[in-house]
Each structure stands twice: as structure tokens, then as C-alpha cells.
Amino acid sequence: MTDKQLICLGEIVGVHGIRGDVKIKLFGDNPKILTKQAMLDAKGQPLCTITSIKDHGGISIATIEGIADRTQAEKWRGKKLHIERTALPEIKKKNTYYHADLIGLEARHIDGSVMGRVIAVANFGAGDLLDIKPARGNSFYIPFTDDAVPDVDIEGGFVSIDPPVGLFD
């Protein structure tokens, strides 16, 4: 499978309690999707089945089938949970995108000049940022807002960006 066919939905970042529950950092807004099918590893091989999940103050607490105690759960720390892209629900809301669909898009200035490629989507608490890597030099962040990113063309393979004043000064 290619990277585009697998989507990372979360990462196990710790354990919770003594019964083998794990803490999952979600890369989305619907934790229930993790319980709808078997999770895969980064190579597309079956990894685990999550039998229950609940929100716990910004992190999710999950039960993994076959994990019965804290010692077993500790071995899962750092594991990333993937599903096939085709298993994700269709997005019906306008101007809403899966991060995986944005990564790899060419970033063009609104004047048409190529500024780089989207290499990641980050969120440090104040909204999504596109991480743009130019052909030379360090990557930079652009706020993923209608003003800074007025056009997203998944089919065309690009985003148009209008950098905020002062970004490159």
C-alpha cells in the first residue's frame, strides 16, 4: 500500500489505569471511527481491534482486544493506528479536507508562482497550519484560513496561498 492509501488516525501515547487501557492522541475529530474496523500498522498489516473508546479531557482512552493489564499496554506505546483511505467517510461539508489529501499538494502564491509543497498539517491549538517546504530553505507555516489559503484544488494538485503581511520580512 502507498502512503496515500493508509491514513494514520492516531497514536498510542500512554496507558491508563491497571486494566490495560491505552491513551490515544487522535488525528481527527471522530474517535468512534477507531472502533468500526481493525486498525492497521504503517505497512497495512492488521494491528489490533479497539473494542471501546471514550474522550478523557482532550485525549481518548481505549480498550484494545486482548490487552488485559498495564504491563501489556505499555508495549503498545508509540504505535500508530491506520486505516485504509477508502474506509473514511465521504466529506460532505464544503471547504473541509482530510489532512492526508492536503499533504503533497503544490503550494502556489496567488500570483501563480510556485512556493513549495505542503509537507504536513499542524495544529498547536489555535487552528490548522499548512507546513510548506520550498525548493530551497526552511519550511514555513501558513494559517489554513480562507484568507491565507483562498483556493484548495485537490484534483488539480495545488493550494493557492496569500501569505500574511510580514511573514517573509
Nutshell version of this structure?
The chain has 169 residues and is mainly beta. It is built from two helices and 13 strands, in the order E-E-E-E-E-E-H-E-H-E-E-E-E-E-E.
Supply database-style keywords.
169 residues; mainly beta; 6-stranded mixed β-sheet; 5-stranded antiparallel β-sheet
Helix content: under 10%
- Across the major sheet, the strand order is 11-10-9-8-13-12
Helix run count: 2
Overall strand count = 13
Mean pLDDT: 89
Largest sheet: 6 strands, mixed
Task: Please state the CA-atom Rg, rounded to the nearest Å.
Answer: 18 Å
The class by helix and strand makeup works out as mainly beta
Question: What would you say this structure looks like, in words?
Answer:
5% of the residues lie in helices and 41% in strands. It is mainly β and 169 residues long. The mean pLDDT is 89.
